[in-house]
Amino acid sequence: MSETRKVTIFGSGLVGCQWAMLFAAAGFQVALHDAKEGQAARALQQIDSQLRDLSAKGHLRGCLSAEQQQQLISAPGSLDEALDGAFLVQECVFEDVQVKRDVFRLLDAKAPAEAFLCSSTSCIMPSEFTSELPGRARCLVAHPVNPPYFLSLVELVPSPFTDPAAVQTVKETLVKLGQEPIVINYEIDGFAVNRLQYAIINEAWRLVTSGR
Ligand SMILES: NC(=O)c1ccc[n+]([C@@H]2O[C@H](COP(=O)([O-])OP(=O)(O)OC[C@H]3O[C@@H](n4cnc5c(N)ncnc54)[C@H](O)[C@@H]3O)[C@@H](O)[C@H]2O)c1
């Protein structure tokens, strides 16, 4: 397995770190970027520690060693450097529609023209933050399930403007990671995973509160 293509992880918190590890396990180069001073560097250290721990416990994904995977991940000093040469950007910032709008406007202006722009959002429909963009055809949601390193399901949610070819290429890329992407064919509140989870949680509460 030697995948030399580059991805940018935009937002290096919980989910950003997990995406970085998944891409590196499949041999992709990964550049981390975060708006918070020092966060991407801290994320690199956390990833290093997690990879060593996973390796020691026999849970490391992919064929590369923990050290080789760590070497594929970097935290460049500038956004331009982080985006340079990326074929896919995975956004992992706060779950706030205005933050997503600002970030996607920035990414559409700065990322390479051919790069796919994916959001990790758990429930915001992609048209809510991409419909005004010149590059809206390359934008879609790729919603992982926590913890993505161990749960392979990813919901792919295109907006009405997303190019079907972009959905297909992102899907094929995620399969290379060992993930199991499913495509939701239309935008719907909560996508599918949250709707199913909330139905189960509601029923559990109903059973508890029924007192029997
Ligand atoms: N945590 C989960 O269980 C989970 C599961 C699936 C999807 N998600 C989704 O993934 C996304 C990220 O969630 P998380 O749990 O990793 O959040 P988090 O708070 O752990 O990390 C968010 C990171 O984004 C950075 N950030 C915020 N605004 C930014 C900006 N404008 N530019 C660059 N970086 C910015 C923050 O500094 C932080 O490091 C959310 O959309 C969330 O809904 C989360």
TrEMBL record:
<dbReference type="Pfam" id="PF02737">
    <property type="entry name" value="3HCDH_N"/>
</dbReference>
<dbReference type="GO" id="GO:0006631">
    <property type="term" value="P:fatty acid metabolic process"/>
</dbReference>
<feature type="domain" description="3-hydroxyacyl-CoA dehydrogenase NAD binding">
    <location>
        <begin position="6"/>
        <end position="185"/>
    </location>
</feature>
<dbReference type="InterPro" id="IPR006176">
    <property type="entry name" value="3-OHacyl-CoA_DH_NAD-bd"/>
</dbReference>
<dbReference type="InterPro" id="IPR036291">
    <property type="entry name" value="NAD(P)-bd_dom_sf"/>
</dbReference>
<dbReference type="InterPro" id="IPR006180">
    <property type="entry name" value="3-OHacyl-CoA_DH_CS"/>
</dbReference>
<dbReference type="GO" id="GO:0050104">
    <property type="term" value="F:L-gulonate 3-dehydrogenase activity"/>
</dbReference>
<dbReference type="GO" id="GO:0070403">
    <property type="term" value="F:NAD+ binding"/>
</dbReference>
<protein>
    <recommendedName>
        <fullName>3-hydroxyacyl-CoA dehydrogenase NAD binding domain-containing protein</fullName>
    </recommendedName>
</protein>
<dbReference type="InterPro" id="IPR013328">
    <property type="entry name" value="6PGD_dom2"/>
</dbReference>
